Amino acid sequence: MISFLKIKNYRGIKSCTIGDLKKVNVFIGRNNSGKSSLLESLYLASASFNFNEVLSKKVENKIDYLLNRRCFRGLKWGSAKEVLWYNYNTEVPITIELKMNSENLRIDLFEWHQHPLIKHKVDAYDYVCLIDKYLVNSRTHSVAFSDRFQEFDKFKQFMSNFKFIDVSLMQEIDVIEKKLWKDLLKNRYDKLIVEVLREGYEIEVEDLTYTTYDEGRTYQLAVKLPQTTIRVDDLGDGARYSLILIMISALSKNTVLLIEEPENHQHPSGLAKTFDMFLSLVKKNNIQVFISTHSLDFLKLLKDISQKKEIDFGVYFLERNRDGIVDVRHLTGENIDVLERMGFDPRFLDII
Fold this sequence. Notes:
Layout: E1 2-10, E2 13-18, E3 24-28, H1 35-46, H2 62-68, H3 77-80, E4 94-100, E5 103-109, E6 117-122, E7 125-129, E8 134-136, E9 143-145, H4 153-160, E10 163-165, H5 173-186, H6 190-201, E11 207-213, E12 218-224, E13 229-231, H7 237-251, E14 255-260, H8 268-285, E15 287-292, H9 296-308, E16 313-320, E17 325-331, H10 333-341
Parallel strand pairs: 2-17, 3-15, 3-16, 10-14, 14-15
Antiparallel strand pairs: 1-2, 1-4, 4-5, 5-6, 6-7, 7-8, 8-9, 11-12, 12-13, 16-17
Helix pairs in contact: 5-7, 6-7, 6-8, 7-8, 8-9
């Protein structure tokens, strides 16, 4: 589990340090306070261990995903890399420092190398590139091929399998079906999806199936109802988001999920059932979660479910100044209860 995070020079963040991270971490604050950039920086760190983007048909790697996540414009590293840097200044590297189980990991992204590099002094070389399997000298940009990377195996499974879950992922549900459906069915996790759709969205689901549409040219996931069968594409936004979240979390183990504003398009009852199921999977599969939100109701809901399931839960209020320095205040569940009893909304701590 990540217990400490420090970010430098990523998008709107000049510098941000967060300690005492928990199993479930929720980031709140005003728009443009750095919440999305914080989630994205963790995904950038993951790219140093696994460069491929597996849940998108629009891009092939995680760097191109980050370049286009907020608005897909077909941006590529060669011509648009500077958008990832604070104030577009590529002269200094983007740096992400992590502490996991008392071990430190530092990852830098330089403008002259698309793959994020891991800080590690080996003779004349000060970085390693796990993607291309070579040592890197950041002063001369020289490289040397090597197989001396066994010491990073302890981080590899955890760091490689980060997933980014946001509303735009609903446009990629066909990719998610193809990637996950076989393993979901093998483990009968499809039953979890049926349960969430029934109880959270009051859909009379009998089962899920995979069938053909468009005269047999398209295979799609579909929902069996008492009188008919409909495509999952034709479910409401909230139900489709829930389906994607449960599919991904059911098959994720010993890693991190990054979730942006899950309250979007959601009725409270659907959100409650979805996250009750989700946090059960978080506990069972040893997943660490980082979530951004603007919803006080969702914050309360997540706090209550986490406490019921005895999952460590932390809320972090982010406030960014004009110089890009992000100040972080850690709120415990007790802090939130006290603020609410006093009539304060914890999302407005900057005003308080």
